[in-house]
Amino acid sequence: MHIPDGYLSPSTCAVAYASAAPFWYVAMRKVKRRLHSRFLPLIAVFSAFSFVIMMFNLPLPGGTTGHATGVGLAAVVLGPWAGMLAISVALVIQAVFFGDGGITAIGANCFNIAIVGSLVASLVYRLVAGTSPTGSSRRLLGAGLAGYAGINAAALLTAIEFGLQPLLFHDATGTPLYAPYALGIAVPAMMIGHLTFAGFAEFFVSAGVASYLQRTDPGLLAREAPGAERGKPDSLKKLWAALAILMLLTPLGLLAVGTAWGEWAPEDFSKADTRREIAAVTHGQAPAAAPAGLARLSTVWTAPIPDYAPPILKNAAFGYVLSAMAGTGLIILVTLMLSALPSRTRDV
Amino acid sequence: MAVNVFELERVSFSYRGVTALDDVSLTVPTGRRLALLGANGCGKSTLLRILAALYFPDSGSVRYHGAPLTEAEFEHDSFSHAFRKRVGLVFQNPDVQLFCPTVFDEVAFGPLQLGWPKERIRQTVNEALDYFEIADLRERAPHRLSGGEKKRVALASVLIMDPEVILLDEPTAALDPRSQSQIVALMKSWESLGKTLVIATHDLHLLTEIADDCLVLDKGRIAGRGTPAEILADESMLLRANLIRPAC
Amino acid sequence: MSEGLHHLVHRRKGFLDRTLGEISHVVDRSFSAELSAAQGGLLQGVDARVKLAGAALLILTAAATPSHALVAGIGAVAVGLALASRLRLGELTTLWTGVLLFSGVIALPALFLTPGEPWWRVPILGWTVTTTGFRTATLLLARVLTTSTLGSVLVSTTPWHALLRAMRAFRLPVVAVVLIGMTYRYIFLFIQTTLDMLEGRQSRLAGELPAAQRRGMAVATVGVLMSKAFELSGDVHLAMQARGYRGEVHVLDEAPLRPLDWLMISALTVLCAGVLWR
């Protein structure tokens, strides 16, 4: 989903802009170097294409429909860098001209969907598709999983950003000033929809279009394929490096958010009301009359962390940073496992 | 100055593995109007793009005023700018040609890229908008224009640079009769200005009005050449090139 | 988060109808914005750069302040500006309904889930609304309503190309502005292409196809669109080159801001900073 204005604090938005900027800069340089003067029409036209397909309602199993962002497709045919630029431009236009997503949240939406989404999708595609021929079904699986992983990585990041808001930004009475739900609620609420509807929509669009291209325009799939004639794609190492930078940015970004607003001093966590708030959420002790389902969900998600954390990590702030990093790590782990499976069956 | 604007010698070109031009030789004399005739997919558009130095031949040579046109020459800003200013190409599909947010931006695009002084650009663009009767469309987005309006904007965006050679790809295709006759009248008016014209078309009716010479292309090869009268008289050649239907 | 609900509400309609619906919504929105931007009204006469700066400042203030009253005040100013610029109230209410549906679903559970003093007990259900829950849910909704109204007022009183040029005044790189401009232009070409493809298919399909087949159809449409996109981008590149483009785009400079414009921007900046840090 596109984050509207008002869900994230201005300082979170500023950090998101600051985190997105270096990626835009590097992407622009890389794309210019590789495509020369072609980059401008290619990115613009592909961006317009992804804007339009974001309006498509895709029929899903079970009689529902879902939207795709095209983040998987962009990663497959353009690669991560051109892809993140194209999706970013589409997101900017949605926010500014069509009110879909907030203007202050453009940085965050671009960072989550366009940048992290593209990098994760590219990585998954490269790992799963490997060096399989452009016409192989393994390449289709790679494209589909790329879309699925890309959109879910974006959703998880969005959920983490939401979930940090009540901890970092609340007034003296403990009233959350922005998105009101802590991680324990925000993450499952966000992920349930994305692991199912949105993820499937992205899977079908990426795999389906890749299959369509195999039949009609295989050249488009060869662009990013390793060893393709036209331009060399980035080495896997570089993609891993980009993701590693992202993981390191996570705690730095959180620190920046907290200190910029001056609300994240350690003594904050010794204040009675703050602690009560954190405790209520992390231990699943929502108010007595909370809807039972949501309360249970929050327990499922957060229960292990406080219980098994070593004493040194009892500091709640550290715990949150850790869980944010763990989330990113989880995505990478799942990616690796996915890539390991098909390659082993192939070797046998 | 050479008598010929373009001299093509044994030019062949293939696009995505398909031969688009096969052993084409031709000369375009200064100030003449040459019509490229042929059915869809005969190689007319490719030939225009070779003349505009957007494609470079796989084999054979292209000369412009006696100087060879190669990809290496276009690495230099000065050469590229001089050539782009003097040779203008109007694409068949106005959606390809019109890529700017507004009509004004579109017409100003060429001069801006060629580095004209900004004040001169503003003035010339306004003159061009008046000349093509599109001044009231200046802030209009391309997707809000009719087919005839798009064509006029496309012409204005190329002619603002006052090129000596104008390459036109199907200038009258998909236009209503009124817009069509406007465009034809415009093309006729350029004759007195001494412009060299190369017009790709499959519309035989226009031939005598807009061309001095004709070249018929069929599957990337030259199938015939001559004056409009000679070409129109050679029915068997026109039949082979799929330009006319067999008489029933 | 409301995606799931959205699916349930719309599951009965076919994907063609829904896709066509969303596309026509985008076209309508851009068209009505163009119309209202061409009308005479208060904000239509203001320089786009001033409006962009003003909207950004007000949105930022509404997003930064912890005060309900200030957010509501800015919201009232936004509505006042909209009316003074002759925007139709109907369009604003459509906007608000959409925003309330989306964010309302998200804000509602916060009434009960936010830890705090009990404030009101819902009869029959017996759930307790907390004071903090009430405050956070209303603050979120007030912010979202105010900021979306401000965004809508900006877009509805400013021709989009003027807004595009205004972005350059705020140090957005030329290449970014050109990219956004070209993308916007080609969105409408692809919308036209999509409508042609979908409407052709819709008329050919009398009965409902199985889901897998409908999905295949949607995906094929996306595939065709993508092939066209790549072909188009190649041709556009040639058309740009033919007119002298070599990788760097050069654009005309804007006329400098008038002193009065500067005064308006500065006054608003001081005002916003003042209310935030008082």
Topology:
The complex is a heterotrimer of chains A (348), B (248) and C (278).
Chain A: H1 10-35, H2 39-53, E1 58-59, E2 65-66, H3 71-78, H4 80-98, H5 106-129, H6 137-168, H7 183-216, H8 218-222, H9 236-261, H10 272-282, H11 292-302, H12 304-308, H13 316-347
Antiparallel strand pairs in A: 1-2
Helix pairs in contact in A: 1-4, 1-5, 1-9, 2-4, 3-4, 3-5, 3-6, 3-7, 4-5, 5-6, 5-9, 5-13, 6-7, 6-13, 7-11, 9-13
Chain B: E1 4-15, E2 18-29, E3 33-37, H1 44-51, E4 59-64, E5 67-68, H2 77-86, E6 87-90, H3 94-97, H4 103-113, H5 118-131, H6 147-159, E7 165-169, H7 177-189, E8 196-201, H8 207-210, E9 213-218, E10 221-226, H9 228-233, H10 235-240
Parallel strand pairs in B: 3-8, 3-9, 6-7, 7-8
Antiparallel strand pairs in B: 1-2, 1-4, 4-5, 9-10
Helix pairs in contact in B: 4-5, 4-6
Chain C: H1 3-10, H2 15-38, H3 48-64, H4 68-84, H5 89-113, E1 118-121, E2 128-130, H6 131-157, H7 160-169, H8 174-204, H9 211-242, H10 259-276
Antiparallel strand pairs in C: 1-2
Helical amount of chain C: over 70%
Tally the beta strands of chain C: 2
What Rg of chain B, in angstroms, do the CA atoms define? 18 Å
Strands of chain B, count: 10
Q: How is the main sheet of chain C built?
A: 2 strands, antiparallel
Greatest chain-chain interface? Answer: A-C, 93 and 103 residues
Integer average pLDDT of chain B? 90
Distance between the termini of chain B: 50 Å
Average of the residue pLDDT scores of chain C: 84
Separate helix tally of chain B: 10
Report the helical percentage of chain B: 25-40%
Poorly predicted regions of chain C: 1-12
How would you characterize this protein structure?
The complex is a heterotrimer of chains A (348), B (248) and C (278). Chain A is mostly helical and 348 residues long. Helix content of chain A is 71%, strand content 1%. Chain A has one domain: Arp2/3 complex 21 kDa subunit ARPC3 (Orthogonal Bundle), CATH 1.10.1760. Chain B has 248 residues and is of the alpha/beta class. Chain B has helices at residues 44-51, 77-86, 94-97, 103-113, 118-131, 147-159, 177-189, 207-210, 228-233, 235-240, and strands at 4-15, 18-29, 33-37, 59-64, 67-68, 87-90, 165-169, 196-201, 213-218, 221-226. Chain B has a 6-stranded mixed sheet with strand order 6-7-8-3-9-10, sandwiched between helices. In chain B, strand 4 and strand 5 (67-68) form a beta hairpin. Chain B starts with a strand and ends in an 8-residue tail after the last helix. By secondary structure, chain C is mostly helical. Mean pLDDT of chain C is 84; it is low at 1-12. The interface between B and C is medium-sized, with 39 and 30 residues.
